[in-house]
Specification:
With about 60 residues, the protein is of the alpha+beta class. Helices cover about 40% and strands about 10% of the residues.
């Protein structure tokens, strides 16, 4: 296996599971990535909860 792509729920349990699996995979030399979380395409910002918005800001990428 060359890469492990994680798709856990954005909950405390999901985050803990993702970190646990990532640590195991990285120890074995496997590249680890995860699906993005954040504001959905076409989503209205006024309806986004604080946690989702904070995660979207924390995971922002440069515009190219």
């Amino acid at each position: 296996m060359r890469e492990l792509i994680l798709a856990t729920n954005p909950t405390v349990e999901g985050e803990a599971t993702a970190h646990y699996l990532a640590e195991l995979a990285q120890t074995a030399g496997v590249r680890v990535s995860r699906l993005a979380h954040g504001v959905p395409l076409g989503g209205e910002l006024e309806y986004i909860d604080r946690g989702t918005l904070a995660h979207a800001f924390g995971s922002r990428l440069p515009l190219s």
